[in-house]
């Protein structure tokens, strides 16, 4: 164990100079970040301030964001979101039955998925939606499926900010659908049936969304054919 470092349970703690060295910054910069409240306060033991791996992860995230051209003001907004957002326990609640698999990511892995789109504003919006939580040095996304879809849409050129706005709208409709299905079940079956029958609700929503996309694509195709027909008629005239 390095000088100035100690173990507290399973958590490592560092004095200021040790933390700065591990984060690759100066002690003066660390003090500046602390004054700007970019990192949470350290644990005090008498006159000694102890920092832990959460502080180290935050400092590395700040460095990565600065290297990609983000401002300290934007990073400060993200820091506030992290400090007042949900940790992994709140994100996952009391581990209710779920079909979703959480994904643990380092800040670097998250940045790699959303290259150029992992702005403080987008990360804060994802935390507000409940997509992201924190667990020590890691960020936790609540759903592998949502994470993979978001990654795929961004790689298709759709801005992450718009993906998140769409996700917020979908959340509203999904809550309404869940209420509708729960009301249907509870009028005819005990509450225990909700978890057992939830795959049926998902199948209905998947099928209806698929049919809705079919109708939308067919309508757009018919509109395009009609437009082309009118253009051809105009040319003949």
Descriptive labels:
alpha+beta; four-stranded antiparallel beta sheet; MerR family transcriptional regulator; MerR-type_HTH_dom; MerR_fam; DNA-bd_dom_put_sf
Helix and strand composition category: alpha+beta
Written as H for each helix and E for each strand, in order along the chain, the element string is EEHHEEHHHEHHEEHHH
Tally the beta strands: 7
Strand order of the largest sheet: 1-2-4-3
Q: Rg from C-alpha positions?
A: 24 Å
Number of helices: 10
Q: First CA to last CA: what distance?
A: 87 Å
Mean pLDDT, to the nearest integer, reads: 82
Query: What would you call the shape?
Result: flat
What percent of the residues sit in helical stretches (DSSP H or I)?
Answer: 55-70%
Low-confidence stretches: none
Fraction of residues in β-strands: 5-15%
Main sheet specs: 4 strands, antiparallel
Characterise this structure.
This is MerR family transcriptional regulator. There is one protein chain. The protein contains ten helices and seven strands. With 237 residues, the protein is α+β, with helices and mostly antiparallel strands. The strands form two sheets. A four-stranded antiparallel β-sheet has the order 1-2-4-3. The termini are far apart. The mean pLDDT is 82.
């Amino acid at each position: 164990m390095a000088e100035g470092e100690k173990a507290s349970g399973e958590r490592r703690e560092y004095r200021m100079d040790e933390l700065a060295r591990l984060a690759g910054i100066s002690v003066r910069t660390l003090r500046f970040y602390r004054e700007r409240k970019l990192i949470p306060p350290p644990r005090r033991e008498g006159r000694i301030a102890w920092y832990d791996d959460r502080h180290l992860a935050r400092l590395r995230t700040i460095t990565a964001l600065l290297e990609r051209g983000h401002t300290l003001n934007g990073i400060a907004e993200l820091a506030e979101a992290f400090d007042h957002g949900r940790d992994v326990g709140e994100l996952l609640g009391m581990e209710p039955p779920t079909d979703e698999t959480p994904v643990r990511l380092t800040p670097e892995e998250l940045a790699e998925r959303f290259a150029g789109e992992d702005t403080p504003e987008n990360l804060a919006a994802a935390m507000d939606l409940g997509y992201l939580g924190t667990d020590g040095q890691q960020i936790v996304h609540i759903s592998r499926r949502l994470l993979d879809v978001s990654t795929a849409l961004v790689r298709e050129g759709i801005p992450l900010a718009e993906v998140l706005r769409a996700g917020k709208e979908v959340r509203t409709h999904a809550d309404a659908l869940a209420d509708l299905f729960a009301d249907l079940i509870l009028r005819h079956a005990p509450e225990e049936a909700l978890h057992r029958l939830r795959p049926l609700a998902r199948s209905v929503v998947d099928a209806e969304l698929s049919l809705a996309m079919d109708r939308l694509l067919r309508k757009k195709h018919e509109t395009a054919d009609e437009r082309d027909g009118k253009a051809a008629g105009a040319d003949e005239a």
